[in-house]
Amino acid sequence: MDKSIPLEDDQDANSKDRNFVTALSRGLDLLRAFGAGEEYLGNAELSSRTGIPRPTISRLTYTLKRLGYLQHNERLEKYRLGAGVLALGYRYLASMGIRDIARPYMQRLADATDCSIALGAADRLSMTYVEVCQGGGPLVMRLETGSRIPMATTAIGRAWLCGLSAERRNQMMSDMRQLDPDNWSITEQSIQKSLDDYATYGFCLSEGDWEREVSAVAMPLILGEGSEVMAINCGGSSLRLSHRVLVENLGPRLKDLVEQIKNSLEPPRIG
Question: Which residues have CB under 8 Å from 62's CB, separation 6+?
Fold first, then answer.
Protein backbone atom coordinates (compact mmCIF):
# COMPACT_ATOMS: atom_id res chain seq x y z
CA MET A 1 0.00 0.00 0.00
CA ASP A 2 1.20 3.50 -0.78
CA LYS A 3 1.69 5.04 2.65
CA SER A 4 0.09 8.25 1.41
CA ILE A 5 -3.19 6.36 1.07
CA PRO A 6 -4.68 5.71 4.54
CA LEU A 7 -6.67 2.60 5.25
CA GLU A 8 -10.37 3.26 5.24
CA ASP A 9 -11.95 3.20 8.68
CA ASP A 10 -15.22 1.38 8.21
CA GLN A 11 -15.21 -0.64 11.39
CA ASP A 12 -18.30 1.07 12.82
CA ALA A 13 -20.45 0.00 9.89
CA ASN A 14 -18.95 -3.48 9.74
CA SER A 15 -19.37 -4.08 13.47
CA LYS A 16 -23.13 -4.12 12.89
CA ASP A 17 -22.82 -6.85 10.26
CA ARG A 18 -23.04 -10.25 11.98
CA ASN A 19 -21.47 -11.94 8.96
CA PHE A 20 -18.41 -9.68 8.99
CA VAL A 21 -15.26 -11.35 10.43
CA THR A 22 -13.29 -8.56 12.08
CA ALA A 23 -10.19 -10.69 12.73
CA LEU A 24 -9.91 -11.57 9.05
CA SER A 25 -10.42 -7.94 8.07
CA ARG A 26 -7.65 -6.82 10.41
CA GLY A 27 -5.26 -9.42 9.05
CA LEU A 28 -5.85 -8.23 5.51
CA ASP A 29 -5.49 -4.59 6.57
CA LEU A 30 -2.13 -5.48 8.09
CA LEU A 31 -0.92 -7.00 4.80
CA ARG A 32 -2.11 -3.92 2.90
CA ALA A 33 0.04 -1.71 5.12
CA PHE A 34 3.20 -2.83 3.32
CA GLY A 35 4.07 -0.48 0.46
CA ALA A 36 6.29 -0.72 -2.58
CA GLY A 37 9.92 -0.15 -1.66
CA GLU A 38 9.31 -0.72 2.06
CA GLU A 39 10.84 -4.08 2.81
CA TYR A 40 10.42 -4.30 6.59
CA LEU A 41 7.89 -2.96 9.09
CA GLY A 42 7.71 -3.51 12.84
CA ASN A 43 4.67 -4.05 15.01
CA ALA A 44 4.64 -0.41 16.12
CA GLU A 45 4.67 0.85 12.52
CA LEU A 46 1.95 -1.60 11.52
CA SER A 47 -0.18 -0.51 14.46
CA SER A 48 0.26 3.15 13.53
CA ARG A 49 -0.66 2.58 9.89
CA THR A 50 -3.67 0.39 10.48
CA GLY A 51 -5.04 1.77 13.73
CA ILE A 52 -5.09 -1.77 15.12
CA PRO A 53 -4.00 -2.04 18.80
CA ARG A 54 -0.41 -3.20 19.33
CA PRO A 55 -1.32 -6.43 21.21
CA THR A 56 -3.64 -7.44 18.36
CA ILE A 57 -0.93 -6.63 15.82
CA SER A 58 1.48 -8.94 17.66
CA ARG A 59 -0.98 -11.84 17.43
CA LEU A 60 -1.71 -11.13 13.78
CA THR A 61 1.95 -10.95 12.75
CA TYR A 62 2.66 -14.19 14.63
CA THR A 63 -0.23 -15.95 12.86
CA LEU A 64 0.60 -14.57 9.42
CA LYS A 65 4.23 -15.58 9.88
CA ARG A 66 3.19 -19.13 10.75
CA LEU A 67 1.04 -19.26 7.61
CA GLY A 68 3.80 -17.97 5.34
CA TYR A 69 2.28 -14.57 4.58
CA LEU A 70 4.97 -12.73 6.54
CA GLN A 71 8.68 -13.29 7.08
CA HIS A 72 10.37 -12.22 10.32
CA ASN A 73 13.83 -10.70 10.57
CA GLU A 74 15.00 -11.45 14.10
CA ARG A 75 17.86 -8.95 13.97
CA LEU A 76 15.60 -6.07 12.96
CA GLU A 77 12.59 -7.43 14.86
CA LYS A 78 10.51 -6.51 11.84
CA TYR A 79 8.43 -8.24 9.18
CA ARG A 80 8.28 -8.34 5.40
CA LEU A 81 5.72 -9.86 3.06
CA GLY A 82 6.19 -13.58 2.57
CA ALA A 83 5.88 -15.93 -0.36
CA GLY A 84 2.25 -16.67 0.50
CA VAL A 85 1.22 -13.14 -0.49
CA LEU A 86 3.18 -13.38 -3.72
CA ALA A 87 1.49 -16.67 -4.58
CA LEU A 88 -1.96 -15.16 -4.02
CA GLY A 89 -1.09 -12.15 -6.17
CA TYR A 90 0.13 -14.26 -9.05
CA ARG A 91 -2.93 -16.52 -8.85
CA TYR A 92 -5.14 -13.46 -9.06
CA LEU A 93 -3.26 -12.04 -12.03
CA ALA A 94 -3.16 -15.42 -13.76
CA SER A 95 -6.92 -15.73 -13.42
CA MET A 96 -7.43 -12.43 -15.19
CA GLY A 97 -7.26 -13.49 -18.82
CA ILE A 98 -7.99 -9.92 -19.78
CA ARG A 99 -4.36 -9.05 -19.09
CA ASP A 100 -3.14 -11.41 -21.79
CA ILE A 101 -5.75 -10.09 -24.21
CA ALA A 102 -5.12 -6.42 -23.46
CA ARG A 103 -1.32 -6.45 -23.30
CA PRO A 104 -0.49 -6.49 -27.06
CA TYR A 105 -2.98 -3.72 -27.79
CA MET A 106 -1.65 -1.68 -24.87
CA GLN A 107 1.97 -2.14 -25.94
CA ARG A 108 1.21 -1.05 -29.51
CA LEU A 109 -0.37 2.15 -28.26
CA ALA A 110 2.51 2.73 -25.82
CA ASP A 111 5.04 2.35 -28.62
CA ALA A 112 3.06 4.57 -31.01
CA THR A 113 2.61 7.40 -28.50
CA ASP A 114 5.74 7.07 -26.34
CA CYS A 115 3.40 7.02 -23.35
CA SER A 116 2.66 4.71 -20.45
CA ILE A 117 -0.52 2.62 -20.72
CA ALA A 118 -1.94 1.03 -17.57
CA LEU A 119 -4.87 -1.25 -16.85
CA GLY A 120 -6.23 -0.84 -13.33
CA ALA A 121 -8.67 -2.48 -10.94
CA ALA A 122 -10.31 -0.88 -7.91
CA ASP A 123 -9.08 -1.75 -4.42
CA ARG A 124 -11.21 0.05 -1.84
CA LEU A 125 -10.60 3.75 -2.52
CA SER A 126 -7.45 3.12 -4.55
CA MET A 127 -6.58 1.73 -7.96
CA THR A 128 -4.09 -1.09 -8.46
CA TYR A 129 -2.25 -1.46 -11.75
CA VAL A 130 -2.69 -5.03 -12.99
CA GLU A 131 -0.82 -4.44 -16.26
CA VAL A 132 1.52 -1.68 -17.45
CA CYS A 133 3.08 -1.16 -20.87
CA GLN A 134 5.76 1.49 -21.36
CA GLY A 135 6.67 3.50 -24.42
CA GLY A 136 10.08 4.95 -25.05
CA GLY A 137 9.22 8.55 -24.22
CA PRO A 138 10.52 10.63 -21.30
CA LEU A 139 8.16 9.60 -18.52
CA VAL A 140 8.19 11.39 -15.19
CA MET A 141 6.78 8.40 -13.33
CA ARG A 142 7.38 4.79 -14.29
CA LEU A 143 4.83 2.93 -12.20
CA GLU A 144 4.89 -0.85 -12.43
CA THR A 145 2.34 -3.64 -12.23
CA GLY A 146 1.12 -3.80 -8.64
CA SER A 147 1.44 -0.05 -8.04
CA ARG A 148 -1.40 1.38 -5.95
CA ILE A 149 -2.55 4.95 -6.50
CA PRO A 150 -5.41 7.12 -5.20
CA MET A 151 -8.78 6.78 -6.86
CA ALA A 152 -10.18 10.27 -6.27
CA THR A 153 -7.28 12.31 -7.65
CA THR A 154 -6.12 10.29 -10.67
CA ALA A 155 -7.49 9.98 -14.19
CA ILE A 156 -7.72 6.20 -14.02
CA GLY A 157 -9.52 6.30 -10.68
CA ARG A 158 -12.05 8.90 -11.79
CA ALA A 159 -12.55 7.01 -15.07
CA TRP A 160 -13.40 3.92 -13.04
CA LEU A 161 -15.98 5.96 -11.13
CA CYS A 162 -17.48 7.07 -14.45
CA GLY A 163 -18.08 3.44 -15.37
CA LEU A 164 -20.16 2.69 -12.27
CA SER A 165 -23.89 2.92 -11.79
CA ALA A 166 -24.98 6.18 -10.20
CA GLU A 167 -25.93 4.35 -6.99
CA ARG A 168 -22.57 2.65 -6.60
CA ARG A 169 -20.65 5.79 -7.53
CA ASN A 170 -22.54 7.82 -4.92
CA GLN A 171 -21.63 5.25 -2.28
CA MET A 172 -17.96 5.41 -3.24
CA MET A 173 -18.03 9.20 -3.11
CA SER A 174 -19.68 9.06 0.31
CA ASP A 175 -16.82 6.85 1.52
CA MET A 176 -14.31 9.33 0.10
CA ARG A 177 -16.01 12.21 1.89
CA GLN A 178 -15.85 10.36 5.20
CA LEU A 179 -12.19 9.51 4.69
CA ASP A 180 -11.04 13.06 3.86
CA PRO A 181 -13.76 15.59 4.78
CA ASP A 182 -11.39 18.58 4.81
CA ASN A 183 -10.55 18.23 1.11
CA TRP A 184 -13.87 16.86 -0.04
CA SER A 185 -15.06 20.05 -1.75
CA ILE A 186 -12.05 20.07 -4.11
CA THR A 187 -12.23 16.31 -4.63
CA GLU A 188 -15.93 16.43 -5.48
CA GLN A 189 -15.34 19.19 -8.03
CA SER A 190 -12.60 17.19 -9.75
CA ILE A 191 -14.77 14.07 -9.91
CA GLN A 192 -17.67 16.10 -11.33
CA LYS A 193 -15.34 17.56 -13.97
CA SER A 194 -14.33 14.03 -14.96
CA LEU A 195 -17.98 13.03 -15.24
CA ASP A 196 -18.54 16.06 -17.49
CA ASP A 197 -15.46 15.26 -19.58
CA TYR A 198 -16.60 11.66 -19.95
CA ALA A 199 -20.02 12.81 -21.11
CA THR A 200 -18.42 15.21 -23.60
CA TYR A 201 -15.46 13.24 -24.94
CA GLY A 202 -16.03 9.65 -23.89
CA PHE A 203 -12.87 9.75 -21.72
CA CYS A 204 -11.51 11.60 -18.68
CA LEU A 205 -8.68 14.13 -18.56
CA SER A 206 -5.99 14.76 -15.97
CA GLU A 207 -3.72 17.73 -16.61
CA GLY A 208 -1.31 17.76 -13.70
CA ASP A 209 -4.10 16.97 -11.22
CA TRP A 210 -2.29 14.25 -9.26
CA GLU A 211 1.33 14.94 -10.20
CA ARG A 212 2.03 18.32 -11.77
CA GLU A 213 4.46 16.85 -14.29
CA VAL A 214 2.05 14.17 -15.54
CA SER A 215 -0.96 14.46 -17.86
CA ALA A 216 -3.20 11.61 -18.93
CA VAL A 217 -6.45 10.45 -20.43
CA ALA A 218 -8.40 7.51 -19.05
CA MET A 219 -11.66 5.69 -19.52
CA PRO A 220 -13.55 2.80 -17.94
CA LEU A 221 -13.39 -0.71 -19.31
CA ILE A 222 -16.87 -2.04 -18.63
CA LEU A 223 -17.10 -5.81 -18.82
CA GLY A 224 -19.96 -8.28 -18.68
CA GLU A 225 -22.64 -5.64 -19.20
CA GLY A 226 -21.45 -3.79 -16.12
CA SER A 227 -20.84 -6.77 -13.85
CA GLU A 228 -17.15 -5.81 -13.67
CA VAL A 229 -15.53 -2.42 -14.22
CA MET A 230 -11.84 -1.77 -14.73
CA ALA A 231 -10.13 1.31 -16.15
CA ILE A 232 -7.28 2.09 -18.50
CA ASN A 233 -5.13 5.20 -18.91
CA CYS A 234 -2.57 6.71 -21.24
CA GLY A 235 -0.18 9.28 -19.84
CA GLY A 236 3.19 10.94 -19.93
CA SER A 237 5.02 14.21 -19.42
CA SER A 238 2.84 17.32 -19.24
CA LEU A 239 5.51 19.18 -21.18
CA ARG A 240 4.57 17.37 -24.38
CA LEU A 241 0.97 16.34 -23.68
CA SER A 242 -0.98 19.54 -24.19
CA HIS A 243 -4.74 19.77 -23.79
CA ARG A 244 -5.12 19.55 -27.55
CA VAL A 245 -2.96 16.42 -27.75
CA LEU A 246 -4.99 14.80 -24.99
CA VAL A 247 -8.36 15.62 -26.53
CA GLU A 248 -7.61 15.20 -30.23
CA ASN A 249 -4.98 12.47 -30.23
CA LEU A 250 -4.57 10.33 -27.12
CA GLY A 251 -8.21 10.28 -26.07
CA PRO A 252 -9.56 8.97 -29.40
CA ARG A 253 -6.74 6.43 -29.60
CA LEU A 254 -7.55 5.21 -26.10
CA LYS A 255 -11.19 4.81 -27.11
CA ASP A 256 -10.07 2.67 -30.05
CA LEU A 257 -7.90 0.61 -27.68
CA VAL A 258 -10.81 -0.09 -25.36
CA GLU A 259 -12.99 -1.15 -28.31
CA GLN A 260 -10.26 -3.50 -29.52
CA ILE A 261 -10.01 -5.13 -26.10
CA LYS A 262 -13.78 -5.48 -25.73
CA ASN A 263 -14.12 -6.94 -29.24
CA SER A 264 -11.40 -9.48 -28.44
CA LEU A 265 -13.29 -10.52 -25.31
CA GLU A 266 -16.51 -11.23 -27.20
CA PRO A 267 -17.14 -14.91 -28.00
CA PRO A 268 -16.85 -15.81 -31.69
CA ARG A 269 -20.08 -15.73 -33.64
CA ILE A 270 -21.34 -18.97 -35.09
CA GLY A 271 -22.97 -19.00 -38.52
Answer: none
